[in-house]
Amino acid sequence: MYIKRSSILALFASAAVAAEKRGLRQVANNAKKNNEFMEDIEFWTRMTQAMSLPTTKRPTSRPTPSSNNKPTPKPVPSTPAPVETAIPSFIDTPLPTVIIVDPTDEPTVVIVDPTDEPTLIIVDPTDEPTSIDPFPTAVPTPVASLLCGLTEEERAAAFTELALSVTPQSILDDPFSSQSLALQWIIEDDVPETPVCPNVDDCKALERYVMASFYFATGGGKWDQCNAPATFTPDAIETANAACDRVVTPFPVNNPRIGADSSDAWLTPSDTCEWGGLACWGTDDSRSGCMDQLDFENDGLAGTLIPEMSSLEDLRFFILEQGNTTGTIPSEYGLFDRLLIFDMDFNDLTGEIPEELFDLNQIQQLDLNDNQLQGPLSTNIGQLTTLTFIQLDHNFLSGTIPTEMGELDALRIAFFNNNDFTGVMPEEICANRNNTNPPGFLGTLVADCNPPDNPEVECSCCSSCNID
């Protein structure tokens, strides 16, 4: 590294002018200080002599590029001429002012108006220089947290993880699946009035995701009532709420419930329990806010049943009568530990009745009539010891009616007609009729027992035959 002679001279000239502007002449009429100053001049002169500076001048204009766009080689400088040793003439009149500060002071960086002439400040060279980073690291601006103490990215990640706990990755990867649409809505559009926190161990966040998935899976947007608003502006939400007046069937339950009298449109910012056709366990129960009842009848629901519904483990009433639901009954529905009523009559369900459905140890009503179910009726139906009502009529069920149904001594009503059942009604079932001695509870028993001379099912104890 070398210091150009012209730079040193420029510093002297700048220092002189700045000193004159600030009235800082300190050497005038002071012989002692003049001598000290001349010693400094002598020091800088020796420094200048010690440096061999090239005499080649910088070109005043850019070289013209050749046609091949290659740069013109720079000339090799000749041996530099010796540096002049004489003190420049401008030092004689007037002499520049050099400010010498206390060498014990910290070095100072002075930023002045660029139109001012610079002042030369000489400090103790042994001091540590003050370093100013020309590219300081930016201090990050704090990101405002969203509800539940989560940033937007953290909330999205938490809801995705929650969805993956009940939905396979392959389904979420499909942008058109009902589950993917539900997750997208809950991350991008849902702004609930009451915080729904995916990082809190309760049922609220999961049930909101599941019910949104149910909405998209069953043709939400084309229902007769309670469709989500087209946009989520206050006016659109108010309009959608006004178009929904559906409430759940008022079963005589022992606990007060949330949303039993509410009829807000689906996907609106209100609590999920307040959406039309839904009700949740009440605040005086340990299951407070958890889904208790899904209840739609003749509202234009279509699509298919999603297995994620089984994650609503406190659900007691699953009622979707008179719709256009297709597909099979998910085997996961056998996980409803508290389910009392499963009512899917007058739909278009296909396939067999899942074996897992006979694990519903609290079920009281199994209503699957008027669908397109087929296959045999499992002997495991005898496990439904709490069953009081069963309707399987108007399907394509085949085989014989299991004798194990005779173990259902709480059964009051049973419809088997308009199917492909054959054989004889088991005596074990007839023994439960209310006209026996001692009488049982089975008051209504219907099968395909006509015509009497050639019935599909021989049933001497049936209350009636072939009711259409």
UniProtKB/TrEMBL annotation:
Residues 51-86 are annotated as: Disordered. Keywords: Signal. Its main location: other. Residues 1-18 form the signal peptide. The keyword Signal applies. It comes from the Eukaryota. InterPro entries: LRR_dom_sf, PGIP. It is found in: Cell envelope. Residues 54-71 have a biased composition (Low complexity). This is L domain-like protein.
